[in-house]
Amino acid sequence: MNYYESLVAKLAPLYRPPHVIGGHTEVHVRGVEKLGEKILPRMREVDPAEYRVAAWLHNLDRCLALEAEIASSGGFASHLQWFLQDSPFDGAGRERIIDAVLQHGKKDDDPMNDSPLLTAIRIADKLDRLTPLNIMAGPTGRSDLPSYDADQPFGYQTNKPCHLKFFLWNVEWYGMLPYDWARELVDKNFFRLFLSFLRELGHDIAERHGIENRIEDDIRTALGRHYEKWR
After folding, report:
1. Per-residue model confidence as pLDDT tens digits over 148-175
2. Exposed site from 24, 99, 116, 161, fewest CB < 10 Å?
3. Is the pTM of this model over 0.85?
4. Residue 190: what are its φ and ψ, rounded to 5°?
């Protein structure tokens, strides 16, 4: 068994419930890995082997079973070093992987300064979120959250966590993808269906509360300059 196979065998069980919640499961990790088949032909400077390993490590800090180990090892970066100690990568390769894992969740892309590996992992992370299974992962994984903020149903800058806010973040990620070719990888039929669902959800909320339906304003804000394509 080579390093990659050994890593997958070790990590796959840790990405299954009850060790993770929400959208950080093995399904998502494997989805990010598989998206490399579509992304890396566009980003030939990325080492496929580094990409596969980064995909499997990128949500490791969400594994509840590792919380104590990560804390005792001196933090997440140190724990990643431990997972990479038997890898075939040189020092620079390990640093690229660790940097990609640590920074993949930041808000904005910076292709001029981010490594191509980090950019590729961030693209895949967003693309895999914009799929039916992973859109559904939020409500199924966090059933404790309300569907929307009853005090501020529209305007997803609400400080209260709710599923409608998270759905609109998913919409926002479409526009945050750093390249047009990456947006072309989003399933257009599903994304249009998802926007239709949000519009119907907004209509239902407004009708039940007797308030103005402002979901379209939220969708417009989330999509930014891409709104006209999807109105």
Report:
1. 999 999 988 888 999 999 999 999 999 9
2. 161
3. yes
4. -65, -45
CB 153 within 8 A of CB 211: yes
Residues, the chain, total?
231
Q: Any alpha helices (H) in the chain, and if so which ranges?
A: 3-11, 26-39, 48-57, 67-72, 76-84, 91-103, 116-129, 132-141, 163-176, 180-183, 188-209, 215-223, 227-230
pLDDT computed for residue 157 by the predictor: 80
User: Residue 104 is encoded by which pair of tokens?
Assistant: 């993949």
Query: How far is C-alpha 62 from the geometric centre of its chain's CA atoms?
Result: 12
Please work out, in degrees rounded to the nearest 5, the angle formed at the alpha carbon of residue 178 by the alpha carbons of 172 and 181. Answer: 105
Q: Which CATH number does the domain 1-129 belong to among 3.40.50.150, 3.30.420.10, 1.10.3210.10, 1.10.260.40?
A: 1.10.3210.10
Rounded to 5°, the CA angle 96-28-224 comes to 80
